[in-house]
Amino acid sequence: MEFDLSWILLGLPLAFVLGWLASRFDIRQLRAENRRAPKAYFKGLNFLLNEQQDQAIDAFIEAVQNDPDTSELHFALGNLFRRRGEYDRAVRVHEHLLSRGDLSRTDRERAQHALALDFLKAGLLDRAEDALNRLEGTPFEAQARLALLAIYERSRDWPHATTIARKMHEADQGDFSTRQAHYLCEQAAALAGQADHAGALALLEQAVAAAPGAARARIDMARLQHLMGQPAAALATLKALGEHNPAALPLAAPLMVEAAAATGRSAEAQALLQEHYDGGPSLDVLESLVAIDTAQGAGEGARQRYVDHLDKEKSLVAAAKWLAGEKLEHEDFHPQVQRALDHAVKPLTRYRCAACGFEARQHFWQCPGCQTWDSYPARRVEEL
């Protein structure tokens, strides 16, 4: 049978034409898809700029369906879900990204960070902790450690918080020495509550070594030493506080008076407190000086201190203290007047957080309102 070359001559052009038509069809389809995806993307962006999040989410979902391999659209969609409080949907988006084998290392780390934020916002602290720990050694390491620190503080997991703070300090990610001291003081307070005074004292010594200029460690140490029947050691600790952090001495002034009285060194404490008071009048130091004078039998001298203070400061608190011991012409009305004054000065004797303005009758090392450390000055509201 002879082979007819005419079929080849006819088939080659036909195959060429069919191939060309197929390629044109594929190109047109690809162009159409590419046009649909950017159009949906920009539509979503426009809705987002107009704060129409529902419409933006619908547009991004459409864009993701048209081009499921686009990671940026997934990130945009996940962030939108998180902002709307739809944390379960945000988690699914970011977990889908992490399950992709073709995801670059940069995008994988970014998706891991986004997933950790989803868990944090949702209040799933255990899962957030695990996700954040996976960010060690990535560009998100510093942010992850800060988030872990917040988790451990919130759950009062002070040993883990101490470890993270030490890592950040050693990595030059900030000065966390004072924060480490606070965590050690918290652990010491827990041990002291269990009557483990030796263990608590050891932790407080570590806190002083970690942050020599921090006030809390020395104040807590002095209070513990006084409780253990070591007033001389407590007084020495408070004298060191006056040298390293004199601004915090008003917080420890009443304790200094007690320790000095127990050791028969009230004159020494009085001289130290007077020197501090002369450098800057303080209501707490004033009260401690009055307490020493009263204990020594100098009642009139003690009351004179309030008058001298009024020459330096316009203090309603000092005026009320002085008036409490004064004989009035209409003495029958004195109790009512004194009650009114005491009620008026009560808000002035509070402490106020410098970060959020939360006021409290006692001094806090960490604000109960905004959770900021060392935001309470060692001065009363009237003195600010």
From TrEMBL:
The keyword rRNA-binding does not apply. Fe cation binds at residues 353, 356, 367, 370. GO terms for biological process: lipopolysaccharide metabolic process; regulation of lipid biosynthetic process. Its main location: membrane. GO terms for molecular function: iron ion binding. InterPro entries: CellSynth/LPSAsmb/PSIAsmb, LapB, Rubredoxin_2, TPR-like_helical_dom_sf, TPR_rpt. Residues 351-375 form the LapB rubredoxin metal binding domain. Keywords: Cell inner membrane, Cell membrane, Iron, Membrane, Metal-binding, Repeat, TPR repeat, Transmembrane, Transmembrane helix. Residues 24-384 are cytoplasmic. GO terms for cellular component: cytoplasmic side of plasma membrane. NCBIfam families: PRK11788.1-3. PANTHER family: LIPOPOLYSACCHARIDE ASSEMBLY PROTEIN B, TPR REPEAT-CONTAINING PROTEIN PA4667. This is Lipopolysaccharide assembly protein B. The gene is lapB.
